[in-house]
Write a structure and sequence with these properties.
Helices cover 43% and strands 3% of the residues. The protein is built from 19 helices and four strands. The protein has helices at 6-11, 40-57, 60-65, 92-114, 118-139, 161-180, 193-196, 204-221, 230-239, 266-271, 288-295, 302-305, 359-371, 379-394, 399-407, 422-433, 439-449, 476-481, 483-487, and strands at 69-71, 251-253, 284-286, 354-357.
C-alpha cells in the first residue's frame, strides 16, 4: 500500500483506493478493494509481514546514529542524517508508514469484534502496541484515541505519550485475557487463524508470551521516569502465568518467502541480494565503533553480524568506516573493500523467516528487569543466559563454549563481577547482541540509559555542535492537513525536545 498518512487514509476511506498488487495483497481485486473484502483472515498475514518488515529494515537511521552502521565509500555525505540537522521531512515515512499499517490493524480489530473472532482482535491489540510504541518513541505525543475515528475526528488531537503507553499496557493485558479465553471448542470460530497467523499458527500460549514480553518492554522504557513503579506493573504480568519469550523461542514471520520479486525475506532483500542476484545494498557498511567493540574484546560475533569484504585490501577482511566521515572514492574505501551489514548470522537465505521479536532481546529485557528487582531470580544468571543466547542465535560455532569463554574473560565490557553499574553492563551487551537485529533498540536505550557511554558523534564537517537527535520532528503533512492539532504541541526542537520517558 502506498505511504499514506492516517488523514489521507480517512479522506479516501469511501473509495479505498491505492492498494498495490504484491505477494501480500489482502483483496481479491487489488485495484478495487472493498470494505467487505477486508476480513480479519485476509488482513492478518499482511499486517504481520509488514510489522516485522518495518521493525527490521525501516530503521537504518538509528543504526547509523548509534554506531552500528556507516556510509560506504561509494557515496558522498548524506545530510541531514549525518549532521543531525534534521527537518520535518526527515524520516517522514515513519509517520505515514506506521499509521498506514495501523489503520489496517484497527480494521482487523473491529472486524474481529463484529464477527466474533476474538483471536484476531487479540493479535490486533498486540500489533497496535508495537506500532504506537514506535510512534511515541520517535515523536512523543501523537494521535491515538481518536486516530481512526474518521467519521467524527478527521483532524484528531494528539494524546500524551505517557497516556498512550498506559493504555497500550492495558490493551496487552486485555489481549492476554482474550487469548486465555480461546480453547479447542471455540478456536474454530476464528476462521483461518491457523493459516493466517504466519507467526504462531494460532497457538495462544505463544501469543501470551509475546504479549507479556512486549508489555515488559513498555515498562522498561519507563524505568527512568520518576515515580514509575515498574516492580508492581511487572508483577501483574507474572501473575497471568503466561511467561515471556524464552531461549530458542524467537517470534518470526514466515508467509513462505521465496526468491522472487516482492516475495523475499525483507532483511535479505534490503541488505543482501535482490531476486535478480544483484547486490541489494552497498551503502550501509560496518561502523568502526561497534566493529572495534567486538574485535578489541576477542568477540567473534562480528563475523556473524557483518560479512567479509568482497575485495579485501591489505588483509582487511572485515573493514568498516566512521559515521559521517568524508571518504575518498578509492581503495580501501569502496564498498566492495568493506563489510556489509548482512552477515551470515543474520542473512541466511532469501527464504528464511523474518525475526519479529527475538529470544535474544527478550532475555536481555528479563535480565534488566531482574537486576532492577522487578522480576525474581538471579540477575547474573539471567544476564549470562542472554549473552549465551546471542551466540546461539547467530549460529556461532560451539556457541555455548564460545559464550562461556567470553563471559569468563574478565574483560570490563562483559565481566559481571567487576561491573559497578550492572544495568549499564546489561544494556551494553544488549547493544552488541542486537546489532542489525533491532537497530531501534540501540537508539531507545541510548536515550534512556546513555549506553553506550562512549558512542562517538558524527564526523560530518557541518555538524556544528549538534548531537544525536532526541526525537524526530512531526512531518510536513501534519502541518498541512492537521495544523491546529500539531501546532498545539508547541515548538519542537530535535536537539532538546524529548519523548516522555527520556529523562
Amino acid at each position: 500500500m502506498k505511504k499514506l498518512s492516517y488523514l489521507i487514509i480517512g479522506l479516501l476511506t469511501i473509495s479505498l483506493v491505492s492498494c498495490k498488487k504484491d505477494f501480500f495483497d489482502v483483496n481479491k481485486n487489488p485495484n478495487s478493494p472493498t470494505t467487505s473484502s477486508m476480513t480479519p483472515e485476509l488482513l492478518l498475514p499482511r499486517a504481520l509481514h509488514l510489522t516485522a518488515a518495518r521493525m527490521s529494515v525501516s530503521m537504518d537511521y538509528s543504526a547509523q546514529w548509534t554506531g552500528y552502521w556507516a556510509r560506504g565509500g561509494n557515496y558522498g555525505p548524506s545530510n541531514p542524517l549525518e549532521d543531525y540537522a534534521i527537518t520535518n521531512d526527515f524520516q517522514a515515512g515513519q509517520w505515514s508508514g506506521w499509521y498506514d499499517l495501523l489503520f489496517d490493524v484497527d480494521q482487523m480489530e473491529k472486524k474481529g469484534i463484529e464477527s466474533n473472532q476474538p483471536f484476531y482482535t487479540g493479535i490486533a491489540k498486540v500489533l497496535k502496541s508495537i506500532g504506537f510504541m514506535y510512534l511515541v518513541d520517535q515523536y512523543n505525543n501523537v494521535p491515538y484515541s481518536k486516530a481512526f475515528d474518521l467519521s467524527n475526528n478527521i483532524l484528531p488531537a494528539y494524546d500524551k505519550g505517557e497516556v498512550i503507553y498506559a493504555d497500550l499496557i492495558k490493551q496487552l493485558d486485555d489481549a492476554v485475557t482474550i487469548f486465555k479465553g480461546i480453547n479447542a471448542a471455540n478456536l474454530a470460530n476464528n476462521k483461518g487463524i491457523a493459516t493466517a497467523d504466519i507467526v504462531y499458527k494460532g497457538n495462544t500460549a505463544s501469543w501470551i508470551r509475546f504479549a507479556n514480553t512486549q508489555r515488559l518492554k513498555l515498562l522498561l522504557r519507563q524505568s527512568q521516569v520518576s515515580g514509575f513503579n515498574g516492580a508492581a506493573e511487572t508483577a501483574k504480568i507474572v501473575a497471568n502465568g503466561g511467561g515471556f519469550i524464552g531461549a530458542g523461542q524467537t517470534a518470526s514471520v514466515q508467509p513462505t518467502y521465496v526468491v522472487d520479486n516482492g516475495k523475499q525475506n525483507p532483511f535479505w532483500n534490503a541488505y543482501k541480494t535482490l531476486f535478480t542476484g544483484a547486490v541489494a545494498d552497498d551503502y550501509n557498511r560496518a561502523n568502526n565503533y561497534v566493529l572495534g567493540k567486538f574485535r578489541n574484546n576477542n568477540d567473534i560475533r562480528y563475523q556473524y553480524f557483518f560479512s567479509a569484504a568482497t575485495t579485501p585490501v591489505s588483509g582487511n577482511t572485515y573493514y568498516g568506516y566512521n559515521f559521517g566521515e568524508i571518504l575518498p572514492s578509492s581503495d580501501p574505501y569502496k564498498s566492495i573493500n568493506s563489510s556489509d551489514v548482512a552477515g551470515p548470522g543474520l542473512a541466511k537465505s532469501a527464504g528464511q523467516p523474518q525475526w519479529f521479536f527475538t529470544s535474544v532481546e527478550s532475555l536481555f529485557l528479563q535480565a534488566e528487569a531482574t537486576q532492577r528487582g522487578w522480576l525474581t531470580g538471579n540477575a547474573e544468571t539471567a544476564y549470562r543466559t542472554a549473552v549465551t543466547e546471542s551466540f546461539t542465535y547467530l549460529g556461532v560455532t560451539n556457541a555455548s563454549t564460545a559464550a562461556t569463554t567470553y563471559l569468563n574473560s574478565g574483560l570490563p565490557i562483559v565481566d559481571w563481577a567487576s561491573a559497578t553499574d550492572k544495568v549499564s553492563l546489561i544494556a551494553m551487551q544488549q547493544y552488541l547482541a542486537l546489532t542489525g537485529i533491532n537497530n531501534f533498540e540501540a537508539y531507545s536505550n541510548y536515550r534512556r540509559l546513555g549506553v553506550p557511554a562512549d558512542l562517538p558523534l558524527s564526523l560530518a564537517p557541518g555538524r556544528s555542535g549538534r548531537v544525536i537527535p532526541k526525537r524526530l520532528l512531526y512531518p510536513t503533512s501534519e502541518y498541512q492537513y492537521n495544523a491546529a492539532a500539531v501546532r498545539a504541541e508547541g515548538t519542537i526542537n530535535a536537539q532538546t525536545s524529548t519523548v516522555f520517558w527520556d529523562k
